Each structure stands twice: as structure tokens, then as C-alpha cells.
Protein 1
Amino acid sequence: MEEIYPAEDVQEKFEADVSFDYYFLKDIDAIAKLEPNCLCEIGGNAWMHYIESGAKVDPRKLSEHFDNGNPFLFREVEKVMKREVLQDIMLVHAKVQDAELDRNICGQLLLARVYPNNLHISDVEFSNPYESVPENEKKYR
């Protein structure tokens, strides 16, 4: 999945070097610390697909994991379903290497291949840390 991220295009936008941090399935604990809400959402989506498929299970069975925002909700869903939820995942953080910047993030993306056979895309950001969007023009936070 690494080749999906347009690293060369991002680098070309800046004179300063851009560093790219990639995290994969083997780095799931780090991803859970960096993006706990995204991982919880993956588990939640899988659970909803499972329930909607007609599974004979109490839909509230995992409610405590939903309530506490467990980033490893997908593992709890796997235990109930007895099948793999998270098949592959990639998180990318792109940062402009410039000490003068207060916030140096210029790109971020989380992609995951998940149950039932979906591509989960979340936490997408492409921005220019040198040119913030004026408050009155922002549509999203």
C-alpha cells in the first residue's frame, strides 16, 4: 500500500525536505497511540457490517468497548466473528523539516483493508504549513 501515497508529489511542493513516517500492521500498537479513534472506527464499522449480515448476536455485546473508545475494538469483533477484521493497514505522516514551523505536518493518510472486503480511508490531510487557511475560509477543523 505504500506506493499509493504520493510522496514524490508532496516533496516537490516544498523547498525544505519532507520526512515520511510509515506505519503498517506490524506497527499496530504505534498506530493505536497515534490514531486511536481511526482504529476504533474500523472495529465499529466491521461490527455494524457483521450485525447487518444477520448474525445471531446481541448488538450490544461489545458496548463497553464502544463506550470507552477502545482502539483495539477490531480484535474484540474478531473474537466474536471468528474471522479477521483488519487485513492490512498503512498510516503515513508527512512532515516538512523546518524548525521555524510551529506545526510541520503537510500530509497524513490512513488506509486499511478490512472486513468484509472494504477499503477504509480516513484521516486524510494534505496541507501547506507555510500558508494556513484563513479562519473565515475554513470548512472543517
Protein 2
Amino acid sequence: MKYSVDKQDRFSIFSLMEDKLNSLIAPDLKTELVILNNEGYHNVIVDLAQVNFIDSSGLSALLVGNRLCQKAGGCLILTNLTDNVHRLIKISQLDSILDIIGSIPESRDLIMMRELEKELKGEAPASTEEDSEA
């Protein structure tokens, strides 16, 4: 699986560089999302700009990542969806479960807004890699 990860202070950007997110790729994606979560990255932006096809196993991997992030008090955001992928997510009625945002900057802004809201409510800020090493 070809991908890149850009780890920021309060979120990470996971860019999948594959044409298809199918049963060959999905287990690796799921593993990487679990690793990010275990490293303390509970806000993950998944950039799917290069993905033109997604099957049920790919959707399942994204749902696992979404569940992990939510249980840790964060969120998983899908961004830069191609028309085919967006249509498949809508047909699967997962657009009401998954956060879908148009671009990485908009996704980053949403995460920062949610983190600020948590801080204003007195909730603990999202842990980062530095926090887990302390």
C-alpha cells in the first residue's frame, strides 16, 4: 500500500496513494489507522484524492478508523473524495456516519474548531505523541 502520513500537533493527515481501496489494501489501511490511534492521533484526516474505487472491505476499514477515533474523543474525516467514491459512500448510506469534508484545509479547520470547543468545555485536550512519551 502506498501512502503518506503527515503528523501534526492535534491531527494527522493520512494520504492514500492507491487507485483502489479494496480487499487487498483495506487490511493495511486498518492497521495503519490503529497504529495512529495507538500513537495518540485521535483526529485523522484521510485524503482519498487518488482513490477512484472503494469496495465493502475498504468501507469497513474506514468505519473501523472512525470508531477508533470517536472512542478516543476525536474524529476521522474523509476529504478530497472523487465522484465515484463519494457516490458509493452515499449509496451505502455511510455519508450520515462518516465526516466528509471537501478539502484538507477545511478538514483541519473543523478539527481545530472541535478541539477548541472541547477545551472551552473543560474537557482534556487531545493527547499527542509528546504527551504519550512524557
Protein 3
Amino acid sequence: MKIGILGGGQLGRMLLQAGINYVVDTYVLENDEHCPAAHLCHHFIKGNIQDFESVYNFGKHLDAITIEIESVNVDALEKLESEGVRVYPSSAALRIIKNKVTQKQFYQQNQIPTSEFVITNSLEELKNKINFLPAVHKLGEGGYDGKGVQLIKDEQDIESGFSQTSVLEKMILIQKEIAVIVAVNEKGEFAVYPPAEMVFDARYNLLDYQISPAIISKEVFWKIEAIAIKVVKELKSAGIFAVELFVDKKNDILVNEIAPRVHNSGHHSIEGNYSSQFDMLWRILLQLPLGNTAPILPSAIVNIVGEDGHVGKAVYEGLDEVLKMNNAFVHLYGKTHTKPGRKMGHVTILANEYSELSHKAHKIKNVLKVVSYQ
């Protein structure tokens, strides 16, 4: 089969690495011929994933197409679907998910528990929502990796909000933040990965490290799984989805966001689960049986991000020390240049004991640094 990927970043790179196990002809569309995925595909096409003609011409001779980022031309994907190209996720599901306004409205319409919210279109409208504070302001479109998200605690923070159409979400007291990867094929068969517990870096609002399976009660586990499956069922699309959820202080579950693709919160599955999220997506793309989501061992991942004050050619300090650790697996994304907060790679850790996972995660964070001397 001829399979296309819109976007050539690290997610495309890891997807192509998993695709080596299958008989498949791979295509990537991306503006930058030096992107992380460019040299791993069979056919690289330079082009704009947001341009209708570029996406349509890229996909019209393919059997199936998927994405590694939401900001793609959905109209082109819809036309390709109408002409028989299989698209994962579907254009209809992607329209819902790529805008945080329509995403929140989707939860509301389908009785999916989520935090209370209002829509704002300008700073003036935001100023009229003082009684709704404290809240989190999220850009409808254009935000990524913590960008486009602003905490509005009180009236003094309003000027740091967004003047474009955005979602203002009521702040809730969170006990845990959980992510669940859900896969569904064209037959409507589901495969659900064990929940992962996320810990965030307050500096960049990026995932700092995570542990999987999450340390939660059976009651919370079953609630999370049921809600995650309901979310994906209501989207009515085959593909792989990351459902991010909050567990509040009362053990109630609220859906935060969905990502319609492989996701940072599932990277541990490369070594930690029998079928990784990337392998699972290939199975869906190639219309093969779904894989085994069971964990091999408890796992943790640590993001490798660019250090503050360093912009330029990337240098990995402490890499040798991390590579000497038992059951630590380093993934570098092939990005030659660093900047503060930029995702440059991740490390997966496997261990029988959660205490060892946490200990090694903190050690890696302190040892491995991405800097630049230019």
C-alpha cells in the first residue's frame, strides 16, 4: 500500500521507524526537506500541509493518509475521502478536534464530562467574565505544546489573554492528569492502552515526565476507560486518539482535550507495551488486526527539551551517562538546532518498581541537558 503522512516532525519520524516492520510504500509532505522524518520515508514531497492543492495532489494517488499535526488542510482531506482515499482521522473528526471551541461543544453535545466553559472573541469580552475567574484561556486554533494557553487568575491577568476566538475554562482542583491512547479500526474494534499519569514542567507547560500504568484505583481506572472510549466512539472515526483527562479531588473524571494522532503521552509504548502506539497506527492504516496494548513492564518517559538561554546547534550534555543506565532508552528526534523548551527527544525507562522509575526520571532530568555553545 501507499501510505502518506502529513507533517515530518518527530511523530512522523517515529511512525516511519515502526513502519519498517511492514511492507509499505511511505510518503511524507512537509515544507522542510531537513525535517526529522525526511530521510526515513521512501518519497519526500516538499509542500505546505495547510495548502489545499498541495495536500490534495499529495494524497490523490495514495491508499491512505494520516497526520502528525492537526494544522492541516481539512477541505483537501474531505475531497480525498470522497474520492476513495482512506483518511485517519476522518476529516469530520479532525474538524471537531482541531478547534478547541468546537471540541468543547462536542463534549457538551454528547454528555461527555468536561470543565465548565464560555467562549470569548476579544479581550473586551474576556473583561466581562471576571466572575468566571480563575480560569484557563485557550486559543481556539493555533496553540501547541503549551503555547496558546494562558492562566487567568484574576482581573490583573486579563491583558495576557487572547483577543481571538478562545475557550475560557473554569479552573478545577486537579488530583491527577491522565492520558489514554485509544485505537479504533474500520470495523469499529477498539484497543485501549493503560492510562498514563502526566507530570508537567511549570516553566513551559510541557509534559515533564509520566508514569504508566497510572497509579489509580480500579474505580477511577474503569471510569477513565469508559469515558475515553465514549469520546472516541462519538467521533465516529477510525484512527488513534490521545484522550487527556483530569481526575479532580472528588475522583470525578473530566475530559480536557483530544489529540487525533499519535501523542507524546504514548511514547513509552515503544519499549513499554507489546504493540506501540506507532505500530498500532500502522495496523489501522494497513487494515491489519489490532495489536496487544498490555504493558511489558511499568514505564516512565522524560522529555528532553532545550535549556533556557541556549539557541543554536544542539549539544547533548550528559548523554553518555544516561546511555549507561540499565533499561533506559534514548530517542533523539534528529533536530540539529535547539532553543528554550523545544522538544529534542525523550528517554523511556522500564522498571518493576515505581520508585525506581521516579528516581531514574529525576536523575535523567538533572543529568541530560540540551545546550548550545554558539
